[in-house]
Specification:
2 domains; 7-stranded mixed sheet; BirA Bifunctional Protein, domain 2; 18% strand; 357 residues; two-stranded antiparallel ribbon; alpha+beta
Length: 357
């Protein structure tokens, strides 16, 4: 008896010949799987209509002649088998359609001698590159690399560094204050005091890390940026040592033709203080729009450590002297690599970072 004939007859008549409901539905499942396995991609739609069509499908006929005509005591069993077969048929047909739509891959089309897909290489961030260049210059001079906490106390960030109470940097317009008198450090100089408190001279240190200011982001400002400073403390240090160290540094960082120019300035934690200009790296000192046609660009501040700072750190200013210099590491990276917007370094754009491979 064909599958079509079976689904047209009432279930009681089929069971009179010794069939069980389970056996009848198993025969339908086997017939469906056989037809699905033999069907071509083009024949799957007609197979769907033959088996799952709402009006003329074989499962619709079995529902009409088996489930509806079954006695009350058989309806739960027949209904469960009918639902299970419909779910199985629907899933099997979807899988067959998906497999038919997938492009066929033949072993003969694969060339195992070809290289695999290329994986993109990462790049060293320009700020990290600049930091490594700085450390390569200072380490041979005997400088140790140290870091300090980014969340600081008011004492270490301001008082120990000789900031007067009415200094603009102490105001909330410039500093990001936290709870309980803590704040996000505005410079790396607090680490100076921490090192001098815990170690005895002679000291030669490079400090680097993130610092925070209450600034509005633009091409030259960011509320978070990287700062680096170096300082040295000993009994016989002079301003000439500072000048020679910084001239050696800028020549090695920006190029042997770079000249340094020192101008008097003021910082609460150094006395005397100076700002350092270097030969404009964009025009080599001939004058351009970036250096405002002066031939020089200001890059860092420096000076001899103020005696009050030494005293706050537990050192005798009558015996010890020191110098310090600090600069924005992001700005040095911008000058060295020709970057015109500081925000580019914090946006994670892989196209920008790929330039520094």
């Amino acid at each position: 008896m064909s599958i079509e004939d079976k689904t047209r007859l009432p279930i009681l008549g089929l069971m009179a010949d010794g069939n069980t409901p389970e056996g009848l539905y198993e025969s339908l499942r086997e017939a469906f799987e056989s037809e699905v396995g033999a069907a071509s991609a083009a024949g799957l739609e007609s197979l769907r209509n033959r088996w799952l069509g709402r009006r003329s499908g074989l499962l619709a006929a079995a529902n009409e002649n088996w489930l509806k005509a079954a006695p009350r005591e058989l309806k739960p069993v027949v209904g469960r088998l009918q639902n299970a077969l419909r779910r199985h048929s629907d899933a099997a047909l979807k899988a067959a359609v998906k497999a038919a739509a997938a492009p066929a891959r033949r072993t003969s089309e694969v060339d195992p001698t070809l290289p695999g897909p290329a994986r993109p290489f990462g790049a060293v961030h320009p700020v990290r590159r600049a930091l490594e260049d700085v450390l390569r210059i200072f380490r041979p001079l005997g400088y140790n690399v140290v870091e300090g906490p980014e969340i600081e106390t008011f004492f270490y960030n301001f008082e120990a560094l000789n900031f007067p109470p009415d200094h603009p940097a102490v105001d909330e317009m410039d500093t990001l204050f936290l709870k309980d008198g803590m704040l996000l450090r505005t410079h790396t100089s607090p680490c100076q005091v921490r090192v001098m408190e815990s170690s005895q001279p002679p000291l030669r240190c490079v400090v680097h890390g993130k610092v925070y200011r209450n600034d509005t982001p633009d091409a030259t400002h960011s509320p978070m940026f990287h700062q680096l400073e170096m300082f040295a403390v000993d009994e016989t240090i002079t301003f000439a040592d500072l000048k020679g160290t910084l001239e050696h540094f800028v020549r090695n960082f920006f190029g042997p033709g770079t000249r340094a120019r020192f101008r008097p300035s003021y910082f609460p934690f150094t006395e005397p203080s100076a700002e350092v200009d270097i030969t404009c790296p964009f025009c080599s000192g001939s004058g351009c729009r970036i250096c405002k046609h002066t031939g020089f660009i200001e890059v860092l501040g420096c000076g001899m450590i103020d005696p009050e700072v030494l005293r706050h750190s537990g050192l005798d200013p009558e015996r010890y002297r020191g110098f310090a210099a600090g600069f924005g590491l992001d700005r040095f990276a911008m000058l060295k690599y020709g970057i015109d917007d500081i925000l580019l370094m914090y946006q994670g754009d892989t196209r920008f970072l790929a330039q520094f491979r």
